[in-house]
């Protein structure tokens, strides 16, 4: 599995925790910044990661900002992305099993590093269950393909 990782200035410390976790889990990754603590704009980091996941260059993405909200809103604008903003372990597992989420967003100002590591681990190791979820996830893709209600 190849993971694309990025944060804005509000998520830089938690991104480093997750980078270390990926090393420990021996998961291949690429770090897309940001490189400094100066104020940056989260869409500038969400879009490059989301586009690379959508294209298949990376299997999954992890995006971190202060709340995780800006990153998740931005990533979900990219066709093919199912970004889940998660701050608990149950949802981390469930969003993989049910939603086949391909990007995880977290907020450094919301949770501590220990919980973030548990969430990321659960999300990385959990598999999509398919089955009855296939129809629901499929409808999201159909809507992206311009179906209207
Ligand atoms: C940056 O101050 C903050 O707005 C950003 O990290 C994020 O929380 C936005 O959703």
From TrEMBL:
It is an enzyme of class 5 (isomerase). Its EC number is 5.3.1.6. Transmembrane segments: none annotated. The lineage of its organism: Bacteria, Bacillati, Bacillota, Bacilli, Bacillales. Coiled coil: none annotated. Keywords: Isomerase. Signal peptide: none annotated. This is Ribose 5-phosphate isomerase B. Pfam families: LacAB_rpiB. GO terms for molecular function: ribose-5-phosphate isomerase activity. It comes from Bacillus chungangensis. It comes from the Bacteria. Belongs to the LacAB/RpiB family.
């Amino acid at each position: 599995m190849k993971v694309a990782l990025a944060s804005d200035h509000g998520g830089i410390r938690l991104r480093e925790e997750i980078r270390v976790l990926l090393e420990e889990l021996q998961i291949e990754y690429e770090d897309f910044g940001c490189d400094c603590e100066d104020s940056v704009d989260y869409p500038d980091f969400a879009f490059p990661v989301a586009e690379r996941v959508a294209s298949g260059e990376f299997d999954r993405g992890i995006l971190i900002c202060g709340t995780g909200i800006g990153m998740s809103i931005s990533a979900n604008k990219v066709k093919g992305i199912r970004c889940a903003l998660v701050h608990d372990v149950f949802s981390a597992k469930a969003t993989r099993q049910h939603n086949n989420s391909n990007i995880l967003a977290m907020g450094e100002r919301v949770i501590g590093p220990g919980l973030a590591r548990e969430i990321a681990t659960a999300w990385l190791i959990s598999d999509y269950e398919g089955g009855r979820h296939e129809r629901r996830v499929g409808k999201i893709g159909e809507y992206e393909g311009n179906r209207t209600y």
